[in-house]
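Any chance you could type out some protein's one-letter sequence along with its C-alpha cells so I can compare the two?
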Amino acid sequence: MLSDLRFAFRSLAKSPGFTIVAALTLALGIGASTTVFSALRALVIEPFSYPRADRIMHLWSNERQVLSTADYLDIRDQSTSFSELGAYSPRPVNLGGTSAQSLLGIECTAGLLRAFGVPPMSGRWFETSDEQNGAPPVVIISHSLWLNSFGGDPGMIGRTIRLDGGDVTVVGIMPASFEFTCTWLPAVTFQVWRPLPLNAQNASRGNHWLLVVGCLKDGVTQAAADAEIKAIGLRLKAAYPETNTNKPFLLRSFRAELTRPVSSYTWMLFAAACLVLLVACANVASMLLARGARRMGELALRSALGATRGKILRLTLIESLLLALAGTAVGLVLASNGTSMLASLAPISEARRAAMRIDGTVLAFAVGAALVTSLVAGLPSAVSAMRVSVNDVLRSDSRCLTGSRTRHNLLRVLIIAQVAVALVLANGAALFTASYARLLAANGDMATEHVLSASVGLLGQRYENRETRTRFYEQFAAHAATLPGVSAAGFTSKLPLEGGSSMDILVNDESFDPTARRTFAEVSAVTPGYFDAAGIRILRGRTLQPADASPESIGVVVNRTLAEACWPNQNPIGKIIRPNKSTPDYRARVVGVVESTRQRGPLEEPLPEIFRTIDRAWAPEAYLIVRSPQPAAQLAPLLRRELAAMDPDLPLAQVRTFQQVLNEGTMDRRLIAGLVNCFIAVALALVAVGLYGTLSFHILQRTREIGVRLALGAERSSILRLVFRQGFSWVLIGAAGGVACSLALAGAMRSLIWGISPFNPLSLLCGTIAVVVAALLACWLPARRATRVDPIAALRAE
C-alpha cells in the first residue's frame, strides 16, 4: 500500500496540470456540499443544544392558535406528564442608562427556563413567588447583555438596573452557550427574561397570547402526554363550550416546530450541493479515464509481471483517493469562507450563526465525502483498467486496445449523466429565480425607500394608562408630520408582512355559535394618517377619524378582502361587525374600505383585515410610519430628536424603510435562488470542461482516422460536423434525461416555490437552453481542432 501511495504521488506530481484541475474540480463539489451541510446541521439536525432536547414539547390550542391564560393554568394544574411547564410571551424592553436601548425580552412563568434545563451562569432561576402581584421586580439577563452593556461586572447579581422606566433587580445571568429559541421569532436574539404574573380570577379563555413549552417526565412518551392534554381539552370543551369548542390541544416536538420553516429548503439546498459534487465526480472520472488510456502499456506490463486485478484496482483507486484528499483540503478552505458568508446572509439568530462553523462533525463529513468521492470518481477508471488485455497491448502494431470500447462507453455515460444533472439544477435555478421575481412583483407596493418605519414602545408605569399611550401616539404622529421632508405620518400596531393580532368576527345577521366557523380577520390599530403614510389606497368611504373612537359609535375601516368575503356585490359602508362572542363587548360600523395588503409574510395572500383607532391597541408598542418624497432613511435623526424631546427614556427602534422590511421578509427566498444559481454556474462550467476534455481525448484517439479521411479528400467542414455531431448527440441524450428527471421531481418542488407551477415550460426551456449552449461551446472547440489535423503528419506518426 505504501509503495502504491508513493508511486501514485509521483505520478500525479509529474502531471501538475491534470492534478491541479482535478483537485480543484473536486474542491468545488466538496466545498459546496460541506458549506450547506454546516447549515443543515446548525438549522435542522442540531438546531439547539439543550440537555434534554428530545423531551421538550410545544403546546397549541389548535393548528393556528396559542393558548389562553385560563387554558394554560388548567393544563398546568391538571397535567401530570411534565416535569416542568412554562408559558411566555415575547415583548420589547427599554433599557435605561446614558442612552436608551430597545431590547427584545421574554415575560415568562417560573417553569419556562427550567423546562429548557440550562441553569444560570450566576444567580438563580425565577421562583413562583416572583410571579405574584406585588413581588419585587426581578430580571434575568443574557450573557451578551451582561458583557456588552454592563462590562461583565462580577457583582451584577443583586444590582439594580433601569427597565421600562423602573428599577429592577438582576437575579440571574444566563451562560453564553444558552440560546433561547422562540418558535414565533426564530431569528431573534433575546436579552432579558422577566416574571409573568398570571391571574386566574381575571383570565380570559378567548384571548390567545401565551406560548407554552414543557419538558416531559422520564418514562412519559410524547404520545401519552398528547393523549393527556387532549383529555383535558375534552373536559374544558364540556365545561366551556362557548370558548373551547374548537380547541383540541396539540402537543408537538419543539425541535419539529422550530425546524419546520427551514427544513425543506435546507435539505433541498443540500441535495443541490450534492448534485454539484456528483457532477464534479463525473468530471474527474472522465479525466481519469482519459488519463488511463495513456497508461495501458504500464498496466499491461504490470499484469504480465504478475500483478493481480486487485493490485491494479488498488493502484487506480489510490490515485483518485489522493486527488480527493487534495480536493478536500482546498474544499475545506472554500467551505470555511462559504460558511461564514452564508451565516452572515441567512435570516437566523446570532447563536445559529455561531453554530454554522467547521468543527469536528463537519470535518468528518468532509472526510467521508472525500472517501465516497474517491470511489465514485475512480471506479470507472479502475473497471476499465482491469479489462486490459496484455496480448493486445504488447503487440507493437496495436491500433485498438482491448477495453477501449468499455472506456469510450463509460466516458459517454459520464458525459450524459453530467448533462442530465446539470439540466435538473438549471431547471431548479430557473424556477427559484422566477418564483422570487413573482414574489417581488406581488409585493411591489412595499418596495420603496420613501416610507420609513420605526417602533416605539411605551413601556413601564408611566404609560400603563391606555389614554396616555393614545395621546402620546397621536401627538408624536402630528409632530412627525410637520418635520421637513415628511409628507404623511401615522402609527400602526403592526407592520405589513410581519403579522399581529387577529380574531373571529360576526357580520350581517350571524349569531354566536361555538361550532360554526366564522370569518377570521386580522386586526390593526392605527392613527388617521397611517393609510396615507403607508400608501394604502382608500377604495370607498373615508379613513378613521377621532370620533370613531367613541364607545357609542365605533367606526372601523376594512380591507377589500374582507369586504368581498362578507358583502360580495354590496356596499359595505355602514355594515356592522362584532367579535365572535356570546356577549360581544362592542359593535363597530364600517366607515371605509381600503386596498388589501399582505399581513403574514410576502408569501401569504391578503387576509380579511379590520383597522381600528389606536386607542384599541392591545400591546403598548406601535410602529411609526412616515412618507417622504426623498429617501426616507435620512429622516431617522430628526425622528429620534423629536422622540427624545417628548421622552428621553424612549428609544426609536427597528428603523427600516419599507424596502428593507420587504428585503428581510424575502431574504430566505433570495438566498436560496442565489445559491442554486451559483450551483448551476459551477455545474455548467464543469460540464463544459468535461465535455471539452472528453471530445479532445476522442480526437486524439482518432487522429489517424481523421488524417486518412482528409488525405482521401474529405472536406474539413465534414470533419467538423462528424466530431460536433458525436458530442452533440451525447448532449441531446443527457438533456432528454434531464428533462425527464426535472418532470419527475416537479411534485417535490411544488412546496418550495411560490407563484409559479413546478411544471413551468418556460423555466424548463430556459434551463435546457443554458445547458445546451454551454455544451455547444464545449463541442465547438474540439471540433475546430479536429479540422486542423495535418493528414501528412498524422500518417507519418502512425
